[in-house]
Fold:
Amino acid sequence: MSIAHLREEYRREQLDERDVAADPLAQFHRWFAQAREAEAPEPNAMALASADAQGAPSCRMVLLKEADERGFVFYTDYRSRKGGELEKVDARAALCFWWAPLERQVRIEGRVERVTAAESAEYFQQRPRGSRLGAWASAQSSVIVSREGLERRHAELDAQHPGEDVPLPPHWGGYRVVPDCYEFWQGRQSRLHDRLRYVPQPGGWRLERLSP
Structure:
């Protein structure tokens, strides 16, 4: 199958140093709000890249649940493949958002830390009941015998926990990516895309333009 002919010509916007916020988090919130206004599908969906102890990479989509001056938060099963990779000493990760209606992406890199148990518990109780039961039923990334067995376990847990009282599993919670690099990318015509990168410097951030 050849798909070499598939391409889009980006021409919607431009990205100029004079128009962006001095703080990359403020710029992210500005673009995120515009992505929601443009009705981009699941604007909080982001690719999460991590690596194992041998440096072998893996990547998957997760959902951003919080973004503030402390970092970017998502939740998962600590026993999963990504959990194992993010539990390494000095673990790092990369995030990538793609908002097709605006022809934009944001890349973020940084170290990884767990959020507190209290933060995980607060978020867990906001999840739909079925999702909370699912966190108990699934040992994420492990091999299972069948779909039917998974659904049977979910039904058993449903009977064990009537009502809304589903406790936080000890193996489930949040991670925070603490950024030390942001890149904002705006698609442009003839593949001459705009790329602005924020890197730390004493007292704030330095803004750099990258070649497309």
